[in-house]
Amino acid sequence: MTFEQFVRRSDATAPAVTFCVSDPTGLGVIRNLARQGIPVLALDGDPRAAGLKSRFAAHCICPDPHYDEAGYISMLQDIGRCLPQKAVLIPCQDDAAFAASRNAETLEPWYLMPFSRWPVMSRLALKDDQIKVAMKAGIDVPRTAFVRTSEDLADAIRDVPFPAILKSAKPRALQRQGFGKAVTVAKEEDLTAAWKRVCGCGTMILQETIPGGDDELFGYYSYLNSASEPLAQFTCQKLRQHPRLFGEARFGESVWVQEVADQSLALLREFGFHGVSGIEFKRDPRDGKFKFMEVNVRHTTRVALAAACGVNITYAAYRDALGRPEVTPAQEEGPRWIYSCYDVPDSIREIVRGELSWIDWTRSLKGTRLDAMLAADDPIPGLYQWYQHIGGFIKARVRLAEKSGVDQQ
Q1: Are 165 and 246 in contact (CB under 8 A)?
Q2: What's the CA gap between 94 and 46, in Å, rounded?
Protein backbone atom coordinates (compact mmCIF):
# COMPACT_ATOMS: atom_id res chain seq x y z
CA MET A 1 0.00 0.00 0.00
CA THR A 2 1.36 3.43 -0.91
CA PHE A 3 0.98 6.49 1.29
CA GLU A 4 -1.46 7.95 -1.25
CA GLN A 5 -3.61 4.81 -1.09
CA PHE A 6 -3.51 4.98 2.70
CA VAL A 7 -4.77 8.57 2.63
CA ARG A 8 -7.58 7.71 0.20
CA ARG A 9 -8.73 4.75 2.31
CA SER A 10 -8.64 7.00 5.40
CA ASP A 11 -11.50 9.02 3.97
CA ALA A 12 -13.98 6.19 4.61
CA THR A 13 -12.38 4.52 7.65
CA ALA A 14 -10.52 6.13 10.54
CA PRO A 15 -6.85 5.18 10.04
CA ALA A 16 -4.23 4.03 12.52
CA VAL A 17 -0.61 5.13 12.76
CA THR A 18 1.95 3.02 14.60
CA PHE A 19 5.65 3.51 15.32
CA CYS A 20 8.35 0.83 15.65
CA VAL A 21 7.55 -2.17 13.49
CA SER A 22 10.90 -3.95 13.57
CA ASP A 23 9.67 -6.89 15.67
CA PRO A 24 6.53 -8.97 16.36
CA THR A 25 4.99 -6.20 18.46
CA GLY A 26 4.60 -3.65 15.69
CA LEU A 27 3.85 -6.29 13.09
CA GLY A 28 1.15 -7.73 15.37
CA VAL A 29 -0.45 -4.28 15.66
CA ILE A 30 -0.46 -3.87 11.87
CA ARG A 31 -2.09 -7.27 11.31
CA ASN A 32 -4.55 -6.95 14.22
CA LEU A 33 -5.95 -3.77 12.66
CA ALA A 34 -5.57 -4.41 8.94
CA ARG A 35 -7.43 -7.72 9.19
CA GLN A 36 -10.36 -5.66 10.51
CA GLY A 37 -10.28 -3.49 7.39
CA ILE A 38 -8.49 -0.53 8.99
CA PRO A 39 -5.92 1.43 6.95
CA VAL A 40 -2.56 1.40 8.76
CA LEU A 41 0.54 3.54 8.39
CA ALA A 42 3.71 1.91 9.78
CA LEU A 43 6.56 4.16 10.91
CA ASP A 44 10.09 3.17 11.90
CA GLY A 45 13.47 4.81 12.24
CA ASP A 46 15.23 1.83 10.62
CA PRO A 47 14.59 1.22 6.91
CA ARG A 48 15.44 -2.47 7.50
CA ALA A 49 12.53 -2.95 9.94
CA ALA A 50 10.69 -6.12 8.95
CA GLY A 51 7.25 -4.60 9.52
CA LEU A 52 7.91 -2.08 6.76
CA LYS A 53 7.66 -5.04 4.37
CA SER A 54 4.09 -5.86 5.39
CA ARG A 55 1.53 -5.77 2.59
CA PHE A 56 -1.05 -4.67 5.15
CA ALA A 57 0.37 -1.19 5.71
CA ALA A 58 1.74 1.88 4.04
CA HIS A 59 5.12 2.82 5.48
CA CYS A 60 7.39 5.80 6.11
CA ILE A 61 10.82 6.25 7.67
CA CYS A 62 10.47 8.41 10.77
CA PRO A 63 12.88 10.01 13.28
CA ASP A 64 13.53 7.84 16.33
CA PRO A 65 11.94 9.60 19.35
CA HIS A 66 14.80 8.48 21.61
CA TYR A 67 17.27 10.58 19.62
CA ASP A 68 14.99 13.16 18.01
CA GLU A 69 11.72 13.60 19.85
CA ALA A 70 11.01 16.96 18.23
CA GLY A 71 11.50 15.45 14.76
CA TYR A 72 9.24 12.52 15.61
CA ILE A 73 6.43 14.79 16.83
CA SER A 74 6.86 17.12 13.86
CA MET A 75 6.55 14.24 11.40
CA LEU A 76 3.41 12.99 13.14
CA GLN A 77 1.95 16.48 12.74
CA ASP A 78 2.86 16.52 9.05
CA ILE A 79 1.19 13.14 8.53
CA GLY A 80 -1.88 14.26 10.44
CA ARG A 81 -2.29 17.31 8.18
CA CYS A 82 -2.47 15.01 5.15
CA LEU A 83 -5.31 12.88 6.54
CA PRO A 84 -9.03 13.46 5.92
CA GLN A 85 -9.86 12.57 9.54
CA LYS A 86 -8.12 11.93 12.84
CA ALA A 87 -5.97 8.81 13.09
CA VAL A 88 -5.67 6.53 16.10
CA LEU A 89 -2.06 6.69 17.30
CA ILE A 90 -0.61 3.41 18.60
CA PRO A 91 3.05 3.53 19.73
CA CYS A 92 4.82 0.17 20.05
CA GLN A 93 8.02 1.29 21.77
CA ASP A 94 8.69 2.92 25.13
CA ASP A 95 10.20 6.14 23.80
CA ALA A 96 7.42 6.54 21.25
CA ALA A 97 4.74 6.05 23.90
CA PHE A 98 6.40 8.49 26.30
CA ALA A 99 6.98 11.12 23.60
CA ALA A 100 3.37 10.96 22.41
CA SER A 101 2.11 11.16 25.99
CA ARG A 102 4.32 14.17 26.76
CA ASN A 103 3.21 15.93 23.57
CA ALA A 104 -0.45 14.92 23.60
CA GLU A 105 -1.78 18.49 23.41
CA THR A 106 0.35 19.14 20.33
CA LEU A 107 -0.92 15.98 18.62
CA GLU A 108 -4.59 16.14 19.60
CA PRO A 109 -5.70 18.18 16.53
CA TRP A 110 -4.80 15.19 14.33
CA TYR A 111 -4.84 12.08 16.52
CA LEU A 112 -6.97 10.06 18.88
CA MET A 113 -4.69 8.68 21.59
CA PRO A 114 -6.08 5.82 23.70
CA PHE A 115 -3.47 6.02 26.45
CA SER A 116 -2.64 7.98 29.59
CA ARG A 117 -1.27 11.48 29.46
CA TRP A 118 2.12 12.34 30.94
CA PRO A 119 1.15 12.92 34.61
CA VAL A 120 0.20 9.22 34.81
CA MET A 121 2.62 7.86 32.22
CA SER A 122 5.62 9.55 33.86
CA ARG A 123 5.04 7.49 37.03
CA LEU A 124 5.13 4.31 34.98
CA ALA A 125 8.17 5.37 32.97
CA LEU A 126 10.54 4.39 35.79
CA LYS A 127 10.84 0.80 36.99
CA ASP A 128 11.63 1.82 40.58
CA ASP A 129 8.34 3.72 40.80
CA GLN A 130 6.52 0.68 39.43
CA ILE A 131 7.96 -1.48 42.20
CA LYS A 132 7.13 1.04 44.92
CA VAL A 133 3.51 1.31 43.79
CA ALA A 134 3.26 -2.50 43.52
CA MET A 135 4.43 -2.85 47.12
CA LYS A 136 1.97 -0.16 48.21
CA ALA A 137 -0.82 -2.10 46.49
CA GLY A 138 0.10 -5.25 48.42
CA ILE A 139 1.50 -7.08 45.41
CA ASP A 140 4.37 -9.49 46.02
CA VAL A 141 7.74 -8.43 44.61
CA PRO A 142 11.21 -9.98 44.81
CA ARG A 143 13.38 -8.65 47.63
CA THR A 144 14.60 -5.36 46.23
CA ALA A 145 16.99 -2.47 46.91
CA PHE A 146 17.49 0.76 44.98
CA VAL A 147 21.08 1.77 44.31
CA ARG A 148 21.63 5.41 43.36
CA THR A 149 25.15 5.96 44.72
CA SER A 150 27.98 3.82 46.02
CA GLU A 151 26.79 4.58 49.57
CA ASP A 152 23.67 2.49 48.87
CA LEU A 153 25.65 -0.69 48.19
CA ALA A 154 26.08 -1.74 51.83
CA ASP A 155 22.34 -1.50 52.52
CA ALA A 156 21.60 -3.36 49.28
CA ILE A 157 23.85 -6.25 50.31
CA ARG A 158 22.07 -6.43 53.65
CA ASP A 159 18.57 -6.33 52.17
CA VAL A 160 18.85 -8.57 49.08
CA PRO A 161 20.02 -12.21 49.05
CA PHE A 162 22.29 -13.51 46.32
CA PRO A 163 22.36 -14.52 43.50
CA ALA A 164 20.71 -11.31 42.34
CA ILE A 165 20.32 -9.11 39.29
CA LEU A 166 20.95 -5.44 38.56
CA LYS A 167 18.62 -3.63 36.19
CA SER A 168 18.09 0.02 35.38
CA ALA A 169 15.06 2.03 36.44
CA LYS A 170 15.08 3.54 32.93
CA PRO A 171 13.59 1.35 30.18
CA ARG A 172 16.22 -0.02 27.75
CA ALA A 173 19.06 1.93 29.40
CA LEU A 174 21.19 -1.19 29.92
CA GLN A 175 20.38 -2.59 26.49
CA ARG A 176 21.52 0.57 24.77
CA GLN A 177 24.88 0.20 26.51
CA GLY A 178 25.24 -3.43 25.46
CA PHE A 179 24.48 -5.02 28.86
CA GLY A 180 21.21 -6.74 27.93
CA LYS A 181 18.09 -6.40 30.08
CA ALA A 182 19.90 -7.10 33.37
CA VAL A 183 23.30 -7.97 34.82
CA THR A 184 23.69 -11.09 36.97
CA VAL A 185 25.42 -10.68 40.34
CA ALA A 186 26.29 -14.16 41.61
CA LYS A 187 27.54 -13.20 45.09
CA GLU A 188 27.72 -10.13 47.27
CA GLU A 189 31.43 -9.53 46.71
CA ASP A 190 30.68 -9.07 42.99
CA LEU A 191 28.16 -6.27 43.52
CA THR A 192 30.50 -3.29 43.68
CA ALA A 193 32.27 -4.20 40.43
CA ALA A 194 28.97 -4.91 38.68
CA TRP A 195 27.48 -1.62 39.83
CA LYS A 196 30.52 0.34 38.64
CA ARG A 197 30.07 -1.15 35.17
CA VAL A 198 26.45 -0.01 34.87
CA CYS A 199 26.08 3.00 37.19
CA GLY A 200 26.07 5.36 34.21
CA CYS A 201 22.61 4.02 33.37
CA GLY A 202 20.92 5.86 36.25
CA THR A 203 19.24 4.46 39.34
CA MET A 204 19.84 0.71 39.54
CA ILE A 205 17.49 -1.89 40.99
CA LEU A 206 19.03 -4.85 42.80
CA GLN A 207 16.66 -7.81 43.09
CA GLU A 208 16.96 -11.34 44.30
CA THR A 209 16.87 -13.95 41.55
CA ILE A 210 13.61 -15.87 41.68
CA PRO A 211 14.37 -19.56 41.03
CA GLY A 212 12.51 -21.61 38.43
CA GLY A 213 12.56 -21.96 34.68
CA ASP A 214 11.03 -20.01 31.83
CA ASP A 215 7.70 -21.76 32.38
CA GLU A 216 7.29 -19.92 35.70
CA LEU A 217 6.88 -16.62 33.81
CA PHE A 218 3.34 -15.31 33.26
CA GLY A 219 2.00 -12.16 31.69
CA TYR A 220 -1.15 -10.02 31.70
CA TYR A 221 -1.91 -8.04 28.55
CA SER A 222 -4.83 -5.65 28.39
CA TYR A 223 -6.49 -2.48 27.23
CA LEU A 224 -8.04 -0.32 29.97
CA ASN A 225 -10.31 2.61 29.15
CA SER A 226 -10.04 6.08 30.69
CA ALA A 227 -11.81 4.83 33.83
CA SER A 228 -9.25 2.02 34.18
CA GLU A 229 -11.87 -0.57 33.28
CA PRO A 230 -10.64 -3.50 31.18
CA LEU A 231 -12.13 -3.83 27.70
CA ALA A 232 -9.68 -6.57 26.69
CA GLN A 233 -7.75 -8.95 28.97
CA PHE A 234 -5.42 -11.84 28.19
CA THR A 235 -2.95 -13.86 30.23
CA CYS A 236 -0.37 -16.32 29.00
CA GLN A 237 2.59 -18.39 30.11
CA LYS A 238 6.09 -18.24 28.72
CA LEU A 239 7.52 -21.67 27.98
CA ARG A 240 10.87 -20.65 26.50
CA GLN A 241 12.62 -17.31 26.09
CA HIS A 242 15.59 -15.82 24.21
CA PRO A 243 18.06 -15.56 25.76
CA ARG A 244 17.20 -17.94 28.58
CA LEU A 245 18.06 -15.32 31.21
CA PHE A 246 16.06 -12.07 31.07
CA GLY A 247 14.99 -12.57 27.45
CA GLU A 248 11.89 -12.14 25.35
CA ALA A 249 9.35 -14.87 24.71
CA ARG A 250 10.21 -17.29 21.95
CA PHE A 251 7.46 -19.80 22.80
CA GLY A 252 4.33 -19.40 24.89
CA GLU A 253 0.81 -20.61 25.56
CA SER A 254 -2.58 -19.02 26.12
CA VAL A 255 -3.50 -19.75 29.75
CA TRP A 256 -5.94 -17.73 31.87
CA VAL A 257 -4.54 -17.10 35.37
CA GLN A 258 -7.03 -15.24 37.54
CA GLU A 259 -4.52 -14.32 40.23
CA VAL A 260 -2.21 -12.71 37.68
CA ALA A 261 -5.14 -10.78 36.19
CA ASP A 262 -6.39 -9.61 39.59
CA GLN A 263 -2.98 -8.37 40.74
CA SER A 264 -2.27 -6.67 37.42
CA LEU A 265 -5.59 -4.87 37.38
CA ALA A 266 -5.09 -3.72 40.98
CA LEU A 267 -1.68 -2.30 40.05
CA LEU A 268 -2.90 -0.48 36.94
CA ARG A 269 -5.81 0.99 38.86
CA GLU A 270 -3.42 2.20 41.55
CA PHE A 271 -1.82 4.31 38.81
CA GLY A 272 -5.17 5.29 37.25
CA PHE A 273 -3.82 3.89 33.99
CA HIS A 274 -5.49 4.15 30.59
CA GLY A 275 -4.16 2.23 27.61
CA VAL A 276 -2.50 -0.97 26.47
CA SER A 277 0.03 -2.61 28.76
CA GLY A 278 1.85 -5.85 29.46
CA ILE A 279 2.75 -6.92 32.99
CA GLU A 280 5.09 -9.79 33.80
CA PHE A 281 5.17 -11.97 36.91
CA LYS A 282 7.30 -14.91 37.93
CA ARG A 283 5.83 -17.65 40.09
CA ASP A 284 8.20 -18.38 42.95
CA PRO A 285 8.42 -22.18 43.44
CA ARG A 286 9.54 -21.60 47.05
CA ASP A 287 6.15 -20.25 48.13
CA GLY A 288 3.95 -20.48 45.01
CA LYS A 289 3.40 -16.71 44.93
CA PHE A 290 3.45 -14.62 41.76
CA LYS A 291 6.20 -11.99 42.09
CA PHE A 292 5.86 -8.76 40.11
CA MET A 293 8.61 -8.13 37.53
CA GLU A 294 7.65 -5.06 35.47
CA VAL A 295 5.03 -3.14 33.48
CA ASN A 296 5.39 -2.20 29.82
CA VAL A 297 2.94 0.60 29.01
CA ARG A 298 2.57 -0.28 25.34
CA HIS A 299 1.81 -3.21 23.08
CA THR A 300 4.05 -6.26 23.44
CA THR A 301 4.80 -9.34 21.35
CA ARG A 302 1.89 -11.31 22.81
CA VAL A 303 -0.83 -9.16 21.20
CA ALA A 304 -0.79 -11.45 18.16
CA LEU A 305 -1.39 -14.55 20.29
CA ALA A 306 -4.15 -12.73 22.18
CA ALA A 307 -5.89 -11.85 18.91
CA ALA A 308 -5.60 -15.44 17.69
CA CYS A 309 -7.34 -16.49 20.92
CA GLY A 310 -10.24 -14.06 20.44
CA VAL A 311 -8.89 -11.06 22.38
CA ASN A 312 -7.86 -8.36 19.90
CA ILE A 313 -6.34 -5.85 22.31
CA THR A 314 -5.29 -3.49 19.52
CA TYR A 315 -8.75 -3.36 18.00
CA ALA A 316 -10.31 -2.79 21.44
CA ALA A 317 -8.10 0.28 21.90
CA TYR A 318 -8.93 1.51 18.38
CA ARG A 319 -12.70 1.15 18.88
CA ASP A 320 -12.60 2.87 22.26
CA ALA A 321 -10.64 5.77 20.80
CA LEU A 322 -13.44 6.22 18.25
CA GLY A 323 -16.08 6.20 20.98
CA ARG A 324 -17.34 2.71 20.12
CA PRO A 325 -16.13 0.67 23.11
CA GLU A 326 -16.68 -3.05 23.19
CA VAL A 327 -15.63 -5.67 25.75
CA THR A 328 -13.83 -8.58 24.12
CA PRO A 329 -14.88 -12.17 24.92
CA ALA A 330 -12.91 -14.44 27.24
CA GLN A 331 -9.78 -15.87 25.68
CA GLU A 332 -9.50 -19.34 24.20
CA GLU A 333 -7.00 -21.31 26.27
CA GLY A 334 -4.47 -23.74 24.86
CA PRO A 335 -3.16 -22.26 21.59
CA ARG A 336 0.59 -21.75 21.46
CA TRP A 337 2.75 -19.11 19.80
CA ILE A 338 6.30 -19.46 18.46
CA TYR A 339 8.93 -16.92 17.50
CA SER A 340 10.57 -19.42 15.18
CA CYS A 341 13.63 -17.45 14.10
CA TYR A 342 14.68 -17.54 17.76
CA ASP A 343 13.11 -20.77 18.98
CA VAL A 344 14.41 -23.02 16.20
CA PRO A 345 18.14 -22.12 16.42
CA ASP A 346 18.04 -21.78 20.22
CA SER A 347 16.36 -25.17 20.61
CA ILE A 348 18.85 -26.83 18.26
CA ARG A 349 21.73 -25.44 20.32
CA GLU A 350 20.07 -26.64 23.53
CA ILE A 351 19.56 -30.10 22.03
CA VAL A 352 23.22 -30.28 21.02
CA ARG A 353 24.25 -29.27 24.55
CA GLY A 354 21.94 -31.89 26.07
CA GLU A 355 19.67 -29.30 27.71
CA LEU A 356 16.63 -30.28 25.64
CA SER A 357 15.63 -33.44 23.78
CA TRP A 358 14.31 -33.64 20.22
CA ILE A 359 11.25 -35.49 21.48
CA ASP A 360 10.42 -32.88 24.12
CA TRP A 361 10.89 -30.04 21.65
CA THR A 362 8.74 -31.56 18.91
CA ARG A 363 6.04 -32.53 21.40
CA SER A 364 5.98 -28.97 22.73
CA LEU A 365 5.07 -27.67 19.28
CA LYS A 366 1.67 -29.40 19.37
CA GLY A 367 -1.05 -26.79 19.54
CA THR A 368 1.10 -24.03 17.99
CA ARG A 369 -1.33 -21.75 16.17
CA LEU A 370 0.85 -18.96 14.86
CA ASP A 371 4.35 -17.65 14.36
CA ALA A 372 5.41 -14.27 15.68
CA MET A 373 6.49 -13.08 12.23
CA LEU A 374 5.53 -15.63 9.57
CA ALA A 375 1.97 -15.50 8.21
CA ALA A 376 0.45 -17.00 5.07
CA ASP A 377 -1.48 -13.82 4.27
CA ASP A 378 1.53 -11.55 4.92
CA PRO A 379 4.68 -13.65 4.27
CA ILE A 380 7.36 -11.10 3.40
CA PRO A 381 8.14 -9.67 6.91
CA GLY A 382 8.78 -13.11 8.42
CA LEU A 383 10.86 -14.31 5.46
CA TYR A 384 12.82 -11.08 5.52
CA GLN A 385 13.62 -11.48 9.20
CA TRP A 386 14.77 -15.07 8.65
CA TYR A 387 17.00 -13.73 5.85
CA GLN A 388 18.45 -11.15 8.26
CA HIS A 389 19.13 -13.79 10.94
CA ILE A 390 20.74 -16.26 8.54
CA GLY A 391 22.87 -13.50 7.03
CA GLY A 392 23.97 -12.39 10.48
CA PHE A 393 24.86 -15.97 11.41
CA ILE A 394 26.97 -16.43 8.26
CA LYS A 395 28.79 -13.13 8.78
CA ALA A 396 29.57 -14.05 12.40
CA ARG A 397 30.98 -17.41 11.29
CA VAL A 398 33.12 -15.76 8.61
CA ARG A 399 34.51 -13.25 11.13
CA LEU A 400 35.24 -16.08 13.56
CA ALA A 401 37.07 -18.06 10.84
CA GLU A 402 39.08 -15.01 9.81
CA LYS A 403 40.03 -14.29 13.43
CA SER A 404 41.03 -17.92 13.93
CA GLY A 405 43.24 -17.77 10.83
CA VAL A 406 44.95 -14.59 12.04
CA ASP A 407 45.53 -16.10 15.50
CA GLN A 408 47.14 -19.20 14.00
CA GLN A 409 49.52 -17.07 11.99
Answers
A1: yes
A2: 16
Cβ(87)–Cβ(11) below 8 Å: no
Distance CA 117, CA 275 (A): 10
Q: Which residues contact 6 (CB under 8 A, 6 or more apart)?
A: 15, 39, 40, 41, 57, 58
Question: Across the strands, what pairs with 217?
Answer: 282
Q: Among 189, 208, 227, which residue terminates a domain?
A: 208
pLDDT by residue (tens digit) across 36-55? 999 999 999 999 999 999 99
φ, ψ of residue 170 in degrees (nearest 5): -90, 130
Statement to judge: residues 367 and 345 lie in one domain: yes
Do 305 and 320 reside in the same domain of the chain?
Answer: yes
State how far the Cα of 127 lies from the Cα of 112, in Å rounded to an integer: 27
* Residue 127 banded pLDDT, cuts 50, 70, 90: very high
Taking the CB of residue 220, how many other CB atoms lie within 10 A of it? 26
Cα–Cα distance measured from residue 364 to residue 304, given in angstroms and rounded to the nearest whole number: 19
Percent of the chain past pLDDT 90, that is, above it, reads: 86
DSSP state of 139: -
In contact, 147 and 195? CB cutoff 8 Å? yes
Q: What is the pLDDT of residue 288?
A: 95
Dihedral pair phi/psi, residue 368, rounded to 5°: -70, 120
